[in-house]
Amino acid sequence: MPPVARLEQAVRWALAALALAALSTVCWNPGFPVWIRAAVVIAAALGAARPREMLLVVAAVGPFANLLVVATGSPPLRAFEALVLAFLAGWLLRPPAHRAGSASRRLLLPVTLLIVIVATSSVALALELHRASDRHFADTMATLRHWYLWTDDITGVAAAAMIVEGAALAFAVVELTERRSRLALALIAATGAAGAAAAALSILLAVGIIPDVPWIHSGLPQRRFVVHVTDINAAGSYFAMIAGLSFGMAASTRGIRQRLWIAALVMSIVGVGLSGSRSAVAALVLVTAAAAVWVGRSHGVGQRLSPRAGWGLAIGVGLIAVIVFVRMPLFFGSQMRREFTLTSVRMIAARPILGVGVGRYYTLSRLILTPRLGALYAEENAHNYSLQIGAELGLAGLAAFVWLVAALLWPAARSLSDPSRDFVSAGLFASAIVFLLTSFSGHPFLVREVSFPFWMLIGVATVASQSHAPPTRPAWMTRVAVGAIAFLIVGVGFRPGVPRLRLKPLQDGLGPVQMELRGRRFRDMGAYGSLFVGPTVTGVEIPVRLADAARTGPRMRVWDQEPGWSQHQTIVGADWVIVRVTLPTADPLMPYQRINLSVERLDGTLPPNPEAPIVAVGDLVITDAAP
């Protein structure tokens, strides 16, 4: 065996060992019911013995695995991830099946580069945590050893694993299906059936047939209904993706199969409507319009559409139009998205090349969200996955991610100009584009029940269009990628420490420093403002009164809120009052703690001019701090 092949096999075995170690945190943990532990063992055994069959189980059952665990009252568990790990472990233990010039061989370098960037980012966070606090590092590692599939961590291991598992899943699908078209078609069918079943559950929830659900029903146009995931916008991305897949299959099949795919198309579009996702509806409208133009302008494409497929497309367009009309109040964009974008730009600027660390966006966002977003959300994801991955993994990570996705979708994109092709590749391409469009205004990649089916489908898209392989990669690109991989591995211990992120003065919602006649310093604040203290502070006092321009007006209610901790209110008038705030201290990878202040009238409404000075905030006084 050549040295490169030996190295690849060794890496595959190491990754398989990590997957099995993650599964063992459930198998040997008495905190989980016996049936869950037994199910994990059976899944791992099936993955090792029959990885192709296990792949179909992942596609068909995976989106509902977490729902099943929750429905039985068992402890929370990332059950879909457990199924994926069981499959990946079995697949990785087998010798590589790709040949020189094959689709999987061409994908090996971009997959490896992304995995290395993600893995080294998590390792760098772990090293930084070890340098900052031995105790926190030991506690984090102990939690991962015993509860990996149940908890998250500040070193980004779970977040890194989700990206690695998705990329590996796409690569495995390509490797297993490039010489087995029946497996590819079976995988498409399993994914479509799962999407239709998920939409059926949403419909049953909407009409009140499913009992004991936490949502209150008050009519379809005003409410949003999803069962199999907790992120309703991500569910919209999932159903929109299934709609694109279903149309491609409906246009490529005949008889009973075509009728079933048309039914799946209708169900998935209804699922989008019930989710109320504005981005999913917008993406469906754009892709449907582009598909209509492609059918009309491409020679011979329209003639190859059967009448029933044409009716299916017409029904789909009609349903989308109804959804847009009924959901119109939800369809307009939010001004807050610009503030989310500003937050992401600030985080990217802090570490532009390699990012602030995988999985750290959500936690670090509490320090640089605009004052209004800080008061409303405390901490939040980017609402744009490309910006989020650029902030966490840097521009290098974003480039590697784009390279992998483009390499997977390139054959399907090229096949659109081939009049001899069926509509399978076009449907797979459309489903991927719909999903990617929704990721520009949301974060469906952060939900495993949604992102894992996406990775499987773009793997199938590569195989379904093998006759349109991408051009040969230039030698310089290969050398640059290999050099980057070596640099990342060697330099993992020399990365800069925690970025000193926080809003700068005048970005924090407070005006310039002013001075009273009696010598007290203060800053005017509108409806929203933020204060920052060190990570070990546990108590502060904040003097507050109405601003000079508002001192003759009515009293106001001032809320103080500490992300992930507590929220209190204080009635403020013309005289100074002291707001006493307790703080929890920050984790070792957080440079500051933030206190969000917001102002409202006593009746709970916002002041008429939120930007104008409403209250004056004096210099805070630290009253207590941890050693």
Name the features.
single chain; 627 residues; alpha+beta; Jelly Rolls; 3 domains; 6-stranded antiparallel beta sheet; 4-stranded antiparallel beta sheet; 20 helices; 10 strands; 10% strand; globular
Can you tell me about this structure?
The protein is an alpha+beta fold and 627 residues long. It folds into 3 domains: 1-96, no CATH class; 104-128 and 157-208 and 220-492, no CATH class; 510-625, Sandwich (Jelly Rolls), CATH 2.60.120. The protein has helices spanning 3-27, 34-49, 51-71, 79-92, 103-132, 134-147, 157-177, 181-206, 232-252, 255-275, 278-297, 301-304, 307-326, 336-350, 361-368, 371-377, 385-415, 424-439, 448-464, 475-490; strands at residues 510-515, 521-525, 528-533, 537-546, 556-562, 566-572, 577-582, 593-600, 615-618, 621-625. The strands form 2 sheets. Strands 1, 2, 4, 7, 9 and 10 form a 6-stranded antiparallel beta sheet that branches. Strands 3-8-5-6 form a 4-stranded antiparallel beta sheet, covered by helices on one side. Helix 7 runs parallel beside helix 19 (448-464).
Briefly summarize what is shown.
With 627 residues, the protein is an alpha+beta fold. The protein has helices spanning 3-27, 34-49, 51-71, 79-92, 103-132, 134-147, 157-177, 181-206, 232-252, 255-275, 278-297, 301-304, 307-326, 336-350, 361-368, 371-377, 385-415, 424-439, 448-464, 475-490, and strands spanning 510-515, 521-525, 528-533, 537-546, 556-562, 566-572, 577-582, 593-600, 615-618, 621-625.
